[in-house]
Amino acid sequence: MLLMQRAGATKHGNPLAPIMHEQYKNPTPAETPVAPRVASELNNLIQIISGTSELIENIWEGTEGSEKYFAMLRASILRAEQVTAQLVAQASGANDKVILHPDLQKLAELAIPAPSPPQPLCILVVDDEQMVLSLYRRILTGGGYEVVCAQSGFECLDLFRRNPKAYDLVLLDLAMPFMDGEETFERLRRISATIDVILTTGFCEGRRLERMMEAGLSGYLRKPLRNDEILCLVASIIQRAKATQSIRSGDGIAAAVQDA
Length: 260
Hints:
Elements: H1 2-9, H2 17-25, H3 34-59, H4 66-90, E1 98-100, H5 102-110, E2 122-126, H6 130-142, E3 146-150, H7 153-162, E4 169-172, H8 181-191, E5 197-201, H9 206-214, E6 219-222, H10 227-249, H11 253-259
C-alpha cells in the first residue's frame, strides 16, 4: 500500500524512485541501499514461489484446465525473474546466475573424476528466511543429500565448530541480520581453510563478490534457481571441489597428466 501511494504521488515511471532518492540522499551506514535490498528480497520471494510451484506441480494429480493455470503461473514467474534481473543490473549486482571460482572452473576442462564419498554428502544451508530453508531442505533431501539448516550466521558457526568435517558444502545467504554472509564466510574460513562455501543470494554487488572470490569463495548462485538447477549445480560443484582437493593432495596429479 505504501509503495502504491508513493507511486501515485510521483510523476516518474519508477514507483521506487521516491524511496531510492530518500535512501541515497541520507544513507544509514547500518542499512543496505534500497535497490539492492529490493532486488534481493524479490529474488528470495521468486525463489520460494517458483520452487514451491514446481513441487506442487510434481505432486498434483491434475484436473481439467489445471495445466492452463500452471502455465500462467510459470509465465508470471519468468516475467518476474526478468524484471528483477533488470533491477539487479541497475543496482550494479553480479549479472551471471552462476559464477564459480577459477579453480573449480578449470576442473570442467580436465574432467578428473572426484573420489567416491564413503557416506551420504552433507550440506549446511544458511538463510534467515525460514521458507527458503524449508524449500532447500525439501529439494536437497529429495536429491539424496543430508541437510542441516541454520537460520543465522551465529547458528552456522556454532554448528560448524562442533564438527567441521561433517559438511561437504555450505550454501550461504548474504543478506542476514546481525552477521551477514560475508562475515560468516570469513569466520568459517578461519575454522577451516578447505571448506567449500557457495553464496546463494538474491543480490550481490559485483566488487563485493570479487573480494569474496579472492578470499576463497567457491562460487555464487543467484536466486531464483529452478529446483533441478539447484540439484545439478550442487552436484557439479561438490564433484569439482572434491576433485580439486584430490589434485592438491597429489591423488589426482597422475590422472591429470595422463589425460592432458
